[in-house]
Amino acid sequence: MTAPVTREFAYGLPKAELHLHLEGTLEPDLKLALATKNGVDIGQSTIEEVQASYRFNDLTSFLAVYYPAMEVLQDEDDFHDLAAAYFARARSNGVVRAECFFDPQAHTSRGVAIETVIRGYHRAVEEAREEGLSADLILCFLRDLPAESAMETLRAALPYADMFIGVGLDSDERDNPPEKFAEVFDLARENGLRVTMHCDIDQVGSIDNIRRALTELGAERLDHGTNIVEDDSLVEFVRDRGIGLTCCPMSNSFVTEDMKGAQIVDLMRRGVNVTVNSDDPAYFGGYVADNYLALAEHCRLDRDDLARLARNSLEVAWVDGDERARLIGRLDDFLAEN
Ligand code: ADE
Ligand code: ZN
Fold it and tell me: Exposed site from 26, 117, 179, 294, fewest CB < 10 Å?
C-alpha cells in the first residue's frame, strides 16, 4: 500500500478526461447568465432554484432535466464560453488531455446551425491548446432520434471534420441498440473518424449491445461499459485488445443505485484499461479529480491505483505516439515527485 490518497494528489495527477459531455458542464451560474443574455425563461432565477430542479434517479429523469436547459445556448460565443469554462476547470483538475463529447442534434433541433455549435466549441479548443491543454471534440448522435437524423447530422458536420476527431452515441440506450446506427458509423469510419459509444450501466440487453458495439460497429472505446464483468469472454476481448472503458463513478451513483466501484476496480485488477471521468459534472456533483477521490474513498484505493487509472486514460486517449509519450512523461514526472 502506497501513501494515502490526498486531495492534492488526486487533483495534481496528470490525466486524460475521455467521457465528458460539454453540455453537461453547464453550471447554474452560467445557465442563469446565458438565460438573461438571450432572454430565455428557464423557470428559475437563482442558483438555489436551478439546483433544486436537479431531481433525477435514473438516466431518463436526468435527460428530462438536461435537454431543456440547453435552450440558453444560442450563439457561437455561448458554445465557446461553455467549453472555455470547462477547460479552465479541467486544468485545475490535472487534466492534460480532454476529449469532449457534444450533441449537435440537441441544438439543431431547436434551430441553431451546426456550424455555430462546432465553431464555438472549436474556438475554445484552440485556445485551450494554446494554453498547453491537449484537447479535441467528439461528435455524438442522440440514439433516441431516428438513424436518418444521425446520418443527416454526420453529413452536415463532415465539412467541419477537421474540427472533431471522432463520433459517439449517447442519450437513452433503451430500445436504441448500436446496430440502429450501423450505416452512420460506417460512413464516419470511411471519413477517418474514430468511434466510441455509450454502453450504459445496467441497460436492458447490455451484454448483447456491448458485443455488437465491439464486433460490428467498430467501437474503439466503450463509454461506461462496466457490465462486461458479467461475461468473462467479453472481459478477455476488451483486455486483449486494450479497449478503454470510460467510467464515471459519480454519475453512476445518480443514475443507478451505486457508483459501480467494485466493478470498476475488479476490471482494473484484471488488466482492463478502465478510466475515470466526470460525464456531466455540473449535474453530478464533481469534476474528474472529484471522481478519482470518490472512487478512492469508496473502494479504499491507494496512490498506485489512482496512478494506474490515470495511466490507462493516457494509454487509450486518441493521440499519436509522440503526444502519448509526452503526456505519459508528465505523469511519470509527477509520480517521481509525489
Ligand atoms: N448524455 C449526457 N450524459 C449522458 C449519459 N451519461 N448517458 C447517456 N447520454 C448522456
Ligand atoms: Zn455520458
Answer: 179
* pTM, 2 dp: 0.98
Contact criterion met (CB below 8 Å) for 228 and 201: no
Is 124:84 a contact under the CB 8 Å cutoff? yes
Grouping H, G, I as helix, E, B as strand and the rest as coil, residue 60 is helix
* SS3 call for 56: coil
Give residue 328's identity as a one-letter amino acid code: I
Q: Please report where in the chains the cell 491507494 appears, as a residue.
A: 302
Write down the residue that cell numbers 447530422 correspond to.
Answer: 153
Cβ-in-10-Å burial (0-12, 13-18, 19+) of 136 comes to buried
- Ligand 1 contact, 59 CB (< 6 A): yes
**What is the distance in A from the centroid of ligand 2 to the CA of 108?**
20
**pLDDT tens digits, residue range 232-268?**
999 999 999 999 999 999 999 988 889 999 999 999 9
Could you please state the CATH topology (level 3) that the domain comprising 7-337 is classified under.
Answer: TIM Barrel (3.20.20)
Residue range 132-157: average pLDDT? 98
198 lines ligand 1 (CB under 6 A): yes
> Per-residue pLDDT tens for 104-123?
999 999 999 999 999 999 99
CB atoms within 10 A of CB 87: 22
